[in-house]
Here is the input.
Amino acid sequence: MCTIVPISLSIGANRIVPTVSIPYPLGNPDLSPDAEKALRRALVERALTALSTPVAEQTVFNK
Here is the structure.
């Protein structure tokens, strides 16, 4: 999980899950508590999908 995808690509990370922003990688304080919880859950689910997906080259998991 990262906030700056080009850096992860340049260092050779094989699974990359983009997050929200540098100061709040796994959240957004402008959202309601319920909306922020949904956002966090979606990011964690995407990360779990990335970990369970076989990859042969660098892969960015946007969705």
Q: What stands out?
A: The mean pLDDT is 96. The chain has two helices and two strands. The CA atoms of residues 27 and 39 lie 7 Å apart.
